[in-house]
Structures are given as C-alpha cells and as structure tokens.
C-alpha cells in the first residue's frame, strides 16, 4: 500500500489518519513486522489489524549463500510457495539490492538460468518491495541502491514494478534516492516510452549484449519483435526526455559477441547520445555452452570504447562462487531437491 491507501484503510477502521504513518515507520524504519510489537498503536487496533489478515511479510528467507566479498544471495519463499532470488552487494559507500520482479521469465535469453526455467507469474508490489526491505533488516543496514535486475523482465510487470519503485523511493517507505534506483530491461520498446513519461528520475539499463540484429535475436528472442534500430531509438528518446544517461549492458561471451566486428558495431550504436556501456564478464550458467571472454578481450573493448570517448565501465565480478547470476541458485536448489 501507498501511504494514502494505508490512510484510507485505517480510517475505514475508525482510526485517525496518522496511524498509517505510525505503521509505516514500524515497517520501513524499524523493520518490525509484528503488530503486537508496534507499541504506540492501541492494543485493540493491533488486534484488529492482525484479525484483518494484513500481511507485513510477503517474502520469507528460505536459503542464502554468502561470498567472501560479502555478496549474499537470498532464496525467498512467497506466500503461495513460489520462490525468487535477490542479491545483496555491499561496497564501501553503497549497499545495493538486486531484486526480482517475476517468478521465472518469458523472455528466454539463451545465456540466462531464469530464461531456461520459463515463466510462472508476475510478482505483486509487496513481494518486490519486501525483498529489499527484508535484506536491509537482515543485514542491519540501510539499503542505498536497488536494481530491478534479478529474475524476470521488470517492464513486463510494469504496474507492480513502478509502484514498488515509488515505495522504495518514498520518504515514508525505504527512502532510496530515485537516482539510485535502476530498471533493467531486455528491450520492451513501448514500455520504455511509457517509462520516459513517468515523473521519476530513475535509471534505465538496456540489456544489449549484441550490437547486430541476427546475433541479438539469437541471444534475446525479444529482439525479433523490437530490433536494434527501434530499441536504440527508444533508448535515445529516454535519455533526451529524462536527461538521464542510459546504460547499455554488454555481457562478454567468448567467441560469441566479442570479435572485432562486434566492437565496431557497438561503437556505432553508442555514437552521439547520452549512454554508458557497462561491460560484464559472463557468469557461466551450466547447460548454455557459453564461457566468459578472455580478460585481454574485455580490456580491448574497454580501451577502444574509452579512446572513442564512449563512457564505459567494467562490472566488477561479484559472487561467482555463490552462483549470483539470476536464477542460478533457484535452479541449483531445484536440482538438489530432485536428487
Ligand atoms: S536475462 Fe533477464 S530478461 Fe533475459 S531471460 Fe533472464 S531474467 Fe529474463
């Protein structure tokens, strides 16, 4: 619920409007889920809230793995028994959560563990927000950044993702700055145009991964519906409309998208607009047959883009030993349960 929705709810129970803010403070600032522990609420109201079946915990931790660098992957159970994964990435100045927006995914990217599992359902707003909230509670830290880059295509679950983003951003919610919130998409073009019209200064990341249509269609089947020219036009529109730099994510896969021609095509796509290329060492997923590019190749891409005045970075490899790529832990646990 937004604060306004919660105010309507509490007033419908005969309570003053400010009770909503009190409840939100317990949930988001104190990390308290149990109404009985919300000590400034009248006892009768605490009981009333519990009797109404109001759910404060939409996800429950069922497993987790922590890497030596502090990256921690969570395996969350939802109320209907489905599961999603989220990742906590601690750095000196930022504490980031990568959250999921769907159970499974219908996009079916060739390099992705989630893509191999198929689509189950969209997440509800509470299930998205609670991944971030719960990790903050468990790690006893304030989450400073959140990215919709876990399982699922966020823009295929547009309404819930946007409402969750607003709750993550709201002062009465988790209070994460809009500029620290990112939505990553495989390229649903109409939704990118829609997002450009929202009054939110959030970041957009496009999973590019290939700079020519035939290869990109092989890696991301959605490219057949929204090929590169229309996708890049949408990216340019988002950058121009929001004045925000669009990130182009590029997973480096050995012998697939890391040749000289690929580099030339990538340079051409980035020419003359407000974008930033994020080169990502591929985190191998069993069964895909793909392997990470050699580090010399990664460096060559980086240096050539930099020399051509393209904003570029290399994503630091985190959590490979805990299978931090989206969908990997879920897949592994399912295999273990079958054994
Ligand atoms: S990479 Fe993202 S969009 Fe592609 S299949 Fe995996 S979860 Fe879906």
Order of helices and strands: HHHEEEEEEHEHEHEHHEHEHEH
What is the CATH third-level topology name of the largest domain? TIM Barrel
Low-confidence stretches: 332-339
Based on DSSP secondary structure assignment, what is the total number of beta strands? Answer: 12
From the helix content, strand content and strand pairing, which structural class follows? alpha/beta
CATH architecture identity of the largest domain: Alpha-Beta Barrel
Q: Number of DSSP helices?
A: 11
Bound molecules: iron/sulfur cluster
End-to-end distance: 41 Å
In order across it, which strands form the biggest sheet? 1-2-3-4-7-8-9-10-11-12
Q: Quick one: biggest sheet?
A: 10 strands, mixed
> What number of structural domains do the residues give?
2
Beta strand %: 15-25%
Multimerization status: single chain
Superfamily (CATH H level) name of the largest domain: Aldolase class I
- If you compute it from the alpha carbons, what radius of gyration comes out, rounded to the nearest whole angstrom? 21 Å
Give the helix/strand layout.
Elements (H helix, E strand, L loop, with lengths): L2 H10 L5 H13 L12 H9 L7 E8 L5 E7 L4 E8 L4 E5 L2 E3 L14 E4 L2 H15 L5 E4 L9 H12 L11 E5 L3 H8 L6 E5 L5 H7 L8 H15 L3 E7 L7 H11 L4 E7 L13 H13 L3 E4 L13 H11 L1
Parallel strand pairs: 4-7, 7-8, 8-9, 9-10, 10-11, 11-12
Antiparallel strand pairs: 1-2, 2-3, 3-4, 5-6
Helix pairs in contact: 1-2, 4-5, 6-8
